From TrEMBL:
Chain spans, region Disordered: 37-65
Domain Carboxylesterase type B per the UniProt entry, residue ranges: 5-462
Source species: Streptomyces decoyicus
Record-given protein name: Carboxylic ester hydrolase
Keyword entries, A-Z: Hydrolase
Signal peptide: none
Amino acid sequence: MQHSSPVVETSSGAVRGLRDRFGDLYRAIPYARAPHGARRFAPPAPHPGWSGVRNATQPSPTAPQPVRAFGRLDMTPYFGPGWVPGDEYLTVDIRTPAADGEQRPVMVFVHGGGFVTGSNRAALYDGKAFARDGVVLVTVNYRVGIPGFLDLPGAPPNRGLLDVLAALRWVRDTISSFGGDPGNVTVFGQSAGATITGALLATPEAGGLFRRAIIQSGTGTGAFTPEQAQRVTETAAKALGVRATAEPFAALPDERFLGILPELAGLDLRTATARDPLLGLSPFGLVLPVQPADALTEGPAAEVSVLIGSNTEEGNLYLVPQGKLESSTEADVLALASAGYAEPAAAVAACRAARPGAPPGELRSALLGEALFGAGSTRMARAHSRISGRRTHVYSFAQRSTALDGRLGAAHTVELPYVFDLADEPWLHGDSGLLGPDAAPAGLAEAMHGAWIAFARDGEPGWAAYDPQQPVVKVFGG
């Protein structure tokens, strides 16, 4: 129900939003110039601004991206509408209790999608519960795929990360106009967005842009080495029939980039010094000489409070919807261990010991989840706790989804409806819905969303800090 149309003045121009019972919503506000043509491979540039009042009531175009399917599982609440063409997609959506003079905590969300998909238009990222609870929520679009993350000579690396940095600078300079406190910003992300958030902790330019960070199912050890990135770049250039530099890439339309993605999937990225940190899930990601978890002293990490965790059955998302959980064999388990672990046999033995009698699919899922998210999150938590002085908090999400005949479990992405306090929404339920046919357990969304809000307010989510000698982990659900 629309009550009125609030207008806010920003340094770029005025914007008109929508007002409802949760507060005010402003959509598709540009934080950088449209990444059109050659600008797709340039650093984000300041937006030139506009005259008059900009309509901020309609959603933004989205970054060019392929369609992602997960069998019978309906992942549209997570991926959103896919590619909605339009140049001006380096934008933010803002949900605020009111655009007044108050100084409220600000939370800036960075979406996931394997560095190739996703947008702030996904239904799961509706911020009304945050506004209801006194927080200004900002959701960010950034470049993905080839424009966002392909490492190209003549273009800055990690352009999607540079976009998030530009959005955070925009928040610092502008959010007070929307009722937010620029001195109390929490950046949080999930999956690829969590990995980007972790990398910000090791990025010198991120200093002073946020006070807290939440890393949901990401990793501090997920970056590709320059050598691995070069392999992806050479393959992409060959598939496109151009030289592997920014100039010829900038002359090509986005459709061409999407068209070659199948040729980049399944590349062998193992080198003499590194395994594929994303285990073939994406040929794109951050490209760094040192993993973020090992470079925290380079960035603002020591001054930032961190909340970090993962789900107990992360790997199920990549096996259950595809029908691979039941069909997994011992050979599959060993192949995965060989790809993801320095000592495969020891990893399988430890996994077996922790899960006596577990079938191969369950072992495969556990090894996958630990290699992709668990190990890198633990390394990040330990590294951060060492330099931050009791400002690291760790959680584990264990609430099993009953989707896909009760088998999806506490898979990757299943915590999001609880964090955003949307777990009762009908579009998340039913056998193919992310949470399955059963009702969400009473109180879990309130507890988890409440912990996120409390952490954003004062850095204390409600349980003891993590210390490698006393690794306190708060378990949600299960």
